[in-house]
Please model this.
Amino acid sequence: MRQIALPLDWSAAGGGELVVSKANEGAAGLIENHSYWPHGGVILAGPPRSGKTMMAEHFRNSHGGQAIDDADRMEDEALFHAWNAAKSSGQPLLLTARTPPGEWRTALPDLRSRLAAMQLVELGEPDDALLEALLRLHLTRLGTGATDETLSYIVKRIDRSYAATEQFALEANARALEQGGPVGMKLARMIFDHQNELDM
Model:
């Protein structure tokens, strides 16, 4: 488990850290070695809040590459021109998206062929180690904390997604502030019980 200092895309305060585990180390390593990219481009696809924007900002700032966030939501012509501009400048190009290019609504044949030639890297949902590290990081940044025992308890029960992890940390922090203490086992159990009641 390690942390890479990166610009922060989900908070206005301070710098950010991308927590790297086996779940995303392939993508992080690929960004650090862009000289080996086939055709000079990579598509990074992954779920919301998975660190794609952080990686893109790191790529721009540390490696001088071109990065386009939410490429799957761009108009064909705009993305095609951006792709050509990056190639003309000789800069490596990183595209981020929620889904692989085969699921995009790309109608322009020339763009489809260019996207197909780029290397695809997919970010899955976080593993246990990444979930725990993300919870710890979110809670620390929010100003509260939790013991290892509590974090382990949460990881075994939380929805396995980046967005759910962040949302749980926000709710736990708010309740901890109301109670004037850290995020403990009692508080964690209360949050899960409340979520179960809402799901019924």
Q: What stands out?
A: The radius of gyration is 19 Å. Residues 1-15 have pLDDT under 50 and may be disordered.
